[in-house]
Specification:
Layout (H helix, E strand, L loop, with lengths): L1 H7 L13 H27 L16 H27 L8 H19 L8 E2 L28 E2 L8 H31 L4 H23 L6 H6 L33 H5 L1
Antiparallel strand pairs: 1-2
Helix pairs in contact: 2-3, 2-5, 2-6, 3-4, 4-5
Length: 275
């Protein structure tokens, strides 16, 4: 037990002492919190919780939980990134190309903030509206929209990049998702090189590895349960006549899309009611 504890509290290099500067210490912890914790959790929430347990989907639509939480985690990570950059630049103002870690770290920070800012280019939302107003219905109201006499759909559709899945929205979703997952992978490499540069203690490596394994396990379980529901259907429903439902879903493998024929197999609300 004593030997294991000594190993955990020893640097990865096997050196007998470990005395990083205060700037390096704080920089590392801020970046691990941002990219090692907030970003992975934000991605998991946005992929698997567009529909939440207990939600009577597809009768109840447009649950804002995933969007609000994803945005909060993303901007939280962005603020921590900036703080980490300020700390390390004040301590070591040398140019980014001084080391591999510094160079790739600057690339991740810049790309991360471009990812955040580009979210404002996602286009107009659009969607069903109340008769006589151009304001789209949101947050649990859409099932109450008056329908046409033949019951075929909402009386009024407000055109929008997302609702109509116009080119602006399609390009945004492809780039946002590809770059998001790509940045997550590169950030893992950046964290590893940072731990090596700081000669981090063994317990830090173990803790980070275990956390990544937990995230991977959660991803696999939720994916297997079918909770990666198509964003478009989570917001507007399963009606095959809707513009976005007439095209393939955008995203990585495993995005689930339903129709009236198979919606009973969706994880919610069937699973919530069964429990």
């Amino acid at each position: 037990m004593t030997r294991a504890l000594e190993w955990l509290l020893s640097p990865i290099s096997g050196a007998t002492d470990h005395d990083p500067s205060s700037g390096t210490y704080l920089h590392g912890r801020l970046m691990v919190l941002a990219w090692g914790f907030l970003v992975p959790v934000g991605i998991l929430l946005s992929r698997f919780y567009k529909v939440t347990p207990g939600q009577d989907w597809p009768r109840v639509l447009n649950n804002p939980f995933w969007f609000n939480s994803h945005r909060a985690f993303a901007y939280g990570a962005g603020v921590l990134m900036l703080a980490a950059v300020v700390v390390i630049v004040l301590e070591d103002p040398r140019p980014p190309w001084r080391s591999f870690h510094a160079g790739i770290g600057w690339c991740v920070v810049i790309a991360g903030w471009l990812q955040l800012l580009s979210s404002h280019l996602r286009g107009a939302m659009g969607g069903p509206t109340q008769p006589g107003t151009p304001v789209p219905l949101r947050n649990w109201q859409w099932s109450q929209v008056p329908r046409a006499a033949d019951g075929s759909g909402p009386r009024i559709d407000w055109p929008g990049d997302h609702y109509n899945m116009l080119r602006t929205r399609v390009v945004f979703e492809v780039l946002h998702k590809v770059c998001g997952y790509g940045l997550l992978a590169v950030s893992a490499l950046t964290l590893v090189t940072g731990l090596l540069a700081a000669d981090a203690l063994n317990w830090m490596w173990v803790a980070l590895l275990l956390w990544w394994l937990v995230c991977a396990a959660v991803f696999i379980v939720l994916q297997h349960q079918g909770q990666a529901i198509d964003c478009y259907q989570a917001i507007w429903g399963i009606d095959e006549a809707l513009p976005g439902n007439r095209m393939k879903p955008i995203g990585w493998w495993g995005i689930r899309r339903y129709s009236s024929a198979n919606v009973a197999a969706a994880p919610y609300p069937r699973r919530a009611r069964g429990g």
